[in-house]
Every structure is written in C-alpha cells, then in structure tokens.
Amino acid sequence: MGTLNLNGGNGAPQTTDTSVRIPAAAGSGSAGKSGSPPSQTWKAFLHNHVQGLASVDFFTVPTVSFRVLFVFIVLAHHRRRVVYFNVTEHPTAAWTAQQMLEAFPEDTAPRYLIRDRDQIYGDCFRNRLRDMDITEVLTAPQSPWQNPYAERMVGSIRRECVDHVIVLGERHLRRILNSYFDYYLGSRTHLSLAKDAPTTRVVQGPEAGEIVEIPQVGGLHHRYERSAA
Fold first, then answer.
1. Contacts for 177-182: CB closer than 8 Å, 24+ residues apart
2. Contact 147/57 with Cβ under 8 angstroms?
3. Cβ(181)–Cβ(82) under 8 Å?
4. Do 128 and 103 contact (CB within 8 A), yes or no?
5. Hey, where are the domains in the chain?
6. Per-residue pLDDT tens for 127-180?
7. Contact predicate 74/102, CB 8 Å
C-alpha cells in the first residue's frame, strides 16, 4: 500500500501511490484539471473510514530521577479503543516498527494508519507497515488537529492520570498506564459513544441493587455499579 499525505492548504488527503487516489478537498471551489468531482473533506474521511482507521503517537513522561520516558500508543478509531501501548527510554525506528507487530498480530491490522511526520517513523517503520498492507496517512506539518483522536487520548492520559502521580521508572509507568487503560476501556464514558465506554457496559436498572463505588487507578477514579445486597 502507499502513503497518503495531507495537503497543508486545504487539508485534503493526497497520495503517493496510484493504487489509492483522493483528489482535491470538497469546497475548494474547483473540480481540478481532470474534471473529476471534489473528494470528501478530511473530517468526512475520518468519519467514512472509522472502521478501518487507527492512529499512533508518542508522548513523554518525566520520572522522579529526571529521566524522560517515551510512551507509544496505538488507538483504533472505532469506539476509541487503545489497542496497544509500550514504554521505552530510547525509542528507535526499529523498536517502533516492532510495536506495530505486537499491536496487530495476524490479520487484525487496520486499512489506514494516521501518524505525524516525526523522524522516529523511519524506513524500518514504513517498510513494516507496507508488509502489513497498511496505508500510512501523514498529517500536515504542525497540524495536530489532523490526528484528533490520538491527540485527545494523550490529553486525557495526562489530565486524568500521569499529571497526578510521581513516576519511578519504566515498570512503574507501565503499571500505572495498565491500570488507567482498564478504567478507560471499561468504565470511562464518552459522549461520542452515547455515554458508553469503549467496552460496552450493561445498563443496570434499580432492580439490580444498591449503587456501590469501586475505586480505580489507585483511587484517582471510580466506577459505579449496582450490586445486590
């Protein structure tokens, strides 16, 4: 598969592979020299391909000893599921490429993968995606809004988790993030999911019992359920 690039002028995906063609963005005022109709906007592209879209991103977390740890996350757009994460102090293109195999074993790979233009995604990473039959979608320079799901996910992790803890090291950060993602996937509700969690929660009526409070993420958050006495 090829690589889609986002045009910095109108936000429309552009491709370097003739097997995937997305022309000028809708609303640009012209159908192009070929006379072909204008394509979907970037927002429409995200909506129309949500079932086959994933995005990746890195963010950093400092430790108590002033080391900087890099967290790599893989997010499936459908139901906002975090499908994989890992932590390292020294990320490389080879390490990042290996994470994609860990995230999508066998035939579970998405059709498109959205990422920014960081140099960490080198030849090794791009070759791995090509072998997995994944088309890269590159965001325009300095345009984090074009990768909204991943950016929002990183913001949630910071605000709801790592900004409230002192990280001791890699193992400690993995344990913290595992706890947070258990909460995020199974308990945290989303307006875009009709106030459901990424892993669907069963609606409990009053007949199910009294409401009980279950601490999660070391007490930073709580899950509320009904439980029979």
1. 177/71, 177/85, 177/87, 179/216, 179/217, 179/218, 180/217, 181/82, 181/85, 182/216
2. yes
3. yes
4. no
5. 49-200
6. 999 999 999 999 999 899 999 999 999 999 999 999 999 999 999 999 999 999
7. no
End-to-end CA distance of the chain: 56
Q: Is the pLDDT of residue 186 over 60?
A: yes
Whether the Cβ atoms of residue 1 and residue 134 lie closer than 8 Å to each other: yes
Q: What is the pLDDT of residues 76-130, one digit of tens each?
A: 999 999 999 999 999 999 999 999 999 999 889 999 999 999 999 999 999 999 9
Give the H/E segment covering residue 142. none
Query: Can you name the residues that pair with 215 across neighbouring β-strands?
Result: 222
Helix (H) or strand (E) holding 27: none
Mean pLDDT of 183-206: 91
d(CA 1, CA 86): 26
| Residues comprising the chain, all counted | 229
CA gap 100, 149 in Å, rounded: 18
Alpha-carbon distance of 63 to 169, in angstroms, equals 6
Q: What is the CATH number of domain 49-200?
A: 3.30.420.10
